[in-house]
Backbone:
């Protein structure tokens, strides 16, 4: 059974968007890892033990769920909860464009030079762009590959720039192919 699905990848790879799309097609409840990671979104983080406690509390109350967003490091004890992990990889140039567009939608002109969010937005983009070249010390492809090597459930890799509809179809096609 694939009742408990975890979707993750780099920032800007579309994990939340795919989770939303799947939750419209499947009877699964959607949880977003950011809701557990942050006390105040992008301002104040929860302690790792509190994140895991809150997330576990929610996950055990549902038979079918989707968790979007990476839990590598802080949520390692959740690995046993997953029936299927979906790993999204999108080339860096596409992720960078998406992230810059998302930042502008969130903060508008404040991310431009001289704006109140300029430095913070610039630092975030620089951090996100480390994904393809950094090691295990930061959220990176290396860290994600290492983390996946410790999973006991199947991993569905979706790589490239696919539409949300295409990704939903890939996941549902996979789920349909393994149901007896």
Residues:
């Amino acid at each position: 059974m694939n009742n408990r699905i975890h979707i993750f990848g780099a920032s800007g790879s579309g994990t939340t968007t795919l989770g939303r799309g799947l939750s419209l097609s499947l009877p699964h409840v959607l949880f977003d890892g950011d809701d557990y990671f942050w006390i105040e979104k992008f301002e104040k983080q929860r302690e790792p033990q509190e994140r895991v406690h809150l997330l576990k509390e929610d996950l055990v109350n549902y038979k079918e769920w989707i968790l979007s967003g990476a839990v590598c490091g802080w949520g390692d004890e959740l690995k046993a909860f997953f029936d299927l992990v979906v790993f999204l990889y999108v080339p860096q140039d596409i992720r960078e464009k998406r992230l810059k567009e998302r930042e502008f939608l969130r903060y508008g002109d404040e991310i431009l030079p001289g704006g109140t969010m300029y430095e913070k937005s610039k630092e975030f983009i620089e951090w996100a762009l480390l994904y393809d070249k950094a090691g295990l010390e930061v959220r990176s492809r290396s860290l994600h590959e290492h983390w996946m090597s410790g999973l006991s459930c199947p991993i569905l890799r979706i790589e490239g720039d696919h539409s949300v509809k295409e990704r939903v179809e890939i996941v549902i096609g996979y789920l349909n192919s393994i149901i007896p």
Summary: The beta strands are 4-9, 29-32, 38-40, 44-45, 65-68, 84-89, 155-159.
